[in-house]
Amino acid sequence: MMSTSEPIISLRNVTKRIGRSTIIDDLTFDVPQGEIFGFLGPNGAGKTTTIRMIVGLMTTTNGQILIKGKNIKTEFEQAIQHVGAIVENPEMYKYLTGYLNLVHYARMVPGVTKERIDEVVKLVKLESRIHDKVKKYSLGMRQRLGVAQALLHQPSLLILDEPTNGLDPAGIRELRDYLRQLTRFGGITVIVSSHLLSEMELMCDRVAILQGGKLVDVKPIQYFTQGSGQAQTYRIETQQPELVMAALSRMDGIEEVKLGVEGIVELTTERERIPEILAELMQHSVRIYGVETVRRSLEDGFLELTGGKQIV
Amino acid sequence: MFNLVRNENMKIYRRVRTWILVGLLVAFVLFINIMSWQFDGKESQGDGWRTVLQQEKEHRNEVLKKPGLEAEDRTFNLQRIAVIDYHLERDIRTEDGSIWDGVNGSAQLAILISVFTIIIAGDIVAGEFASGTIKQLLIRPANRLKILISKYVASLMFGILLLFALFVVSFLANGVLFGFGHLDLPLIEVKEGVIVENNMFLNLLQTYMLNGVSTILYVTMAFMISSAFRSSTMAIGFSIAALFAGNILLEALQRFDWSKYLLFANTDLTQYLSGQPYQSGMTLSFSIGVLAIYFVAFNLISWLMFTRRDVTS
Lengths: 312, 313
Ligand SMILES: Nc1ncnc2c1ncn2[C@@H]1O[C@H](COP(=O)(O)OP(=O)(O)O)[C@@H](O)[C@H]1O
Ligand SMILES: [Mg+2]
Hints:
The structure holds two protein chains of two kinds. By secondary structure, chain A is of the alpha/beta class. Chain A has helices at residues 47-54, 76-80, 98-106, 114-123, 139-151, 169-185, 197-203, 222-226, 241-249, 274-283, 298-306, and strands at 9-18, 21-31, 36-40, 62-67, 70-71, 83-86, 157-161, 189-194, 206-211, 214-220, 232-238, 254-259, 264-269, 288-294. Chain A contains eleven helices and 14 strands. In chain A, α4 (114-123) packs across α5. Chain A starts with 8 loop residues before the first strand and ends in a 6-residue tail after the last helix. Chain B is mostly helical. Chain B has one domain (2-45, 97-308). In chain B, 73% of the residues lie in helices and 4% in strands. The relative contact order of chain B is 0.12. Chain A binds chain B through residues 52, 55-59, 76-78, 80-81, 83, 85-89, 91-96, 100, 103-105, 107-109, 149, and chain B through 3-4, 6-7, 10-11, 14-16, 131-133, 135-143, 310-312. The structure holds adenosine-5'-diphosphate and magnesium ion. Magnesium ion is lined by residues 47-48, 88, 161-162 of chain A.
């Protein structure tokens, strides 16, 4: 998925000062085409401010932002035409219908046809309600209309600020699948922000961790879930936990075995050992109903990076 | 640019609020016209105007007999009598009791146009900040200046719509009340001591234009506050206050020479028609110059504040 071509967006030493306080301090990173990139950080970390600077709503105090090689400050129109965004909440004209909201934004970019409007309406599944006034929409529907307006002009870079706000788990899953589809088939690059690591994990390829306006690190998402690649904890569901415990305690290469509740046995081992362990358990003719990976707590991964500072 | 103005118009006219303002204007025009027809215009209708003029003439002759009448009042009464005689001798009816009575009278409601246009202009930028939609608006490949201009143009277009509504409604209402005759009636006035016949329609147009100048200035002021302070309440409140309190302020400040540079002292260009400017030495071109400076300054401030500042709403 990573491409070697020039990044869709690159930030160089981006700094924002308002009055005496430095809100964003020297951010530098690139996002290649096709990636879903996350800004992760607690409230007040500077996620929204960074997004505002990327889309030109705020100017940078120092540094520069290039979108497809165009400077957002000096070549605003050429740079912004590649971007579709929702900054903070998806705020629409409540007294207009969803459709007229889209017509409004369509008129601001050359070449957006009626057919394209219908296409994005279908894409976000708002066909049945698109001619209702936005004030009657639920938060989820507004979110979807927001995505629709951001996609109207077929941008190369889609930026969504806290897109999961107000979505239920099913909605979040739907959004994730949808973003995946966009990056995979549409070649779009996506930047999302969130203060919840668990949501980032569902959506992103890489995350930039922001704290107090500083970039702590940029890591692939696996870093948080799989740690540095050694032992992991697995959970086995069985009807004969004692039998399994006994069998496991006789095996090699197992760091820890624990008896859980309701027929669950937890063991910690390397991933490579799992097939052998299962095969051996089978020979003891125990009935196993399921094996799952117990993720390393996301927060553990995060704490390791930020040196013990808690997120959220 | 054309599309941007279309967008702004869509946002104005798809709101109930806008139509309430238009409706209020229509209601006011109807109310005022029916009232003045009922209590004033009716008696002049048909041939009634002659009787009314006769009565006025007698009354003015009485006034002239009073001892100690000031020269100014004396001239005024004599001029009125001359005009009345002109009407009676040539059998040219007065506008009283004709369609023109109400149509001309309704032009006084132009102040409502100012107020209602201020409401739209004061909200057109600040409202987008309040609702947060400004963020979506400004992240399109259209520069901020173009967006600002389209909003300004749409605000002024709303003022023109109101003026049009004022004219059409007052024309139709008075046509129904007084009949649609006498449209070619001349306006008989004393100009520099001589009685002249003027075109009634051109006179109305002139009134509209002069009122329009004042409307444009106050609307531009509301628009500036809206863009600079991003607050509708402040823009609308301050501009309407200026519109109404301006004259009171002027009276208090008349003795100061510098007060002639105030916006309020110059917005009413009709002061040069009556020949009584706010301060002696003020001329029409002086006022036009002062207004032009305010106009440019307001727009410059709008532009600087709107295009340069960060959007943090
Ligand atoms: N206009 C502003 N003036 C001063 N401080 C601001 C302004 N906007 C944001 N901040 C500060 O900048 C920091 C980052 O805010 P923000 O970017 O909204 O964080 P996030 O989106 O990560 O929650 C916060 O501490 C906030 O108080
Ligand atoms: Mg935020």
